[in-house]
Amino acid sequence: MTPSVPVAVFASGGGTNLQALLDHEDASKIYRVVAVIADRPDAAALERARATGRDAWVISVKDRSQDEVGDELLQDLRDRGVQVIALAGYLKLIPSAVVAAYKRRILNIHPALLPAFGGKGMYGQRVHRAVLAEGAKVTGATVHYVDEEYDTGTIVAQWPVRVLAGDDAETLAARVLEVEHRLYPAVVDHVCTAVAEGRDPDPFILASIDFESAFQD
Ligand code: GRF
Predict the structure, then answer these.
(1) Which residue's alpha carbon is nearest to atom 2 within ligand 1?
(2) Per-residue pLDDT of the chain (217 residues; tens, 9 = 90+)
(3) Which residues line ligand 1 (CB under 6 A)?
(4) CATH superfamily of 5-200
(5) Which of 10, 16, 17, 188 to mutate to test the pocket of ligand 1 (most atoms within 8 A of CB)?
(6) 106 membership: H or E segment, kind and range
(7) Measured in angstroms, how far is the CA atom of residue 1 from the centroid of ligand 1?
(8) Helix, strand, coil percentages in the chain from 3-state DSSP, rounded to 5
(9) Among 36, 87, 98, 126, whose CB has the most other CB atoms within 10 angstroms?
(10) Would you list the domain boundaries of the chain?
């Protein structure tokens, strides 16, 4: 059997997407989360990681140059043989040395349909508040490759979620998050399968993970 692809997850917050990746791992056997890196010590994602016996630590970016942070990240990632990085609520830019070393091997999940409602400052409830303020009828989740900017990398997969009359940022966030937890493990599987086979991933087909249920209301 092909060995699992070593994955690092970067997080800044609660880590429910990290949890979804951890929960899916045994069934998948395609990837293994070998490292969880946070930029702040109070990120609950660190606890989730340690609760399943994963190595989890902080690499602070505060008052440090991109080059310095990049060197530290690359050293740690290489020490653990990391092949794919999944950002899961990680709020910092990825240093360019890391982007270059992991070209099309870094994924992020964003709680809207990019390129709408993305970019600097568009995170958490701000995204859902902006969707509601614009009167958008459909939002969703996007998984994309990561480059040096916020939310601009090539889109890998999207899952639409209907905006319902009466939604507020909280109810919308909850429905989008539910979709994120299904989408992200499926896309990480998809990309890691290609990495294990030494090729670029085929286009990701959303229908393979039950598109219809996205539109239950
Ligand atoms: C998610 O909505 C994700 O799309 C965004 O940040 C949030 C992280 O949530 N990038 P969690 O920490 O995974 O619970």
Answers:
(1) 111
(2) 677 999 999 999 999 999 999 999 999 999 999 999 999 999 999 999 999 999 999 999 999 999 999 999 999 999 999 999 999 999 999 999 999 999 999 999 999 999 999 999 999 999 999 999 999 999 999 999 999 999 999 999 999 999 999 999 999 999 999 999 999 999 999 999 999 999 999 999 887 665 555 554 4
(3) 11, 13-17, 88-89, 109-111, 177, 180
(4) Formyl transferase, N-terminal domain (3.40.50.170)
(5) 17
(6) strand 106-110
(7) 32
(8) 40, 20, 40
(9) 36
(10) 5-200
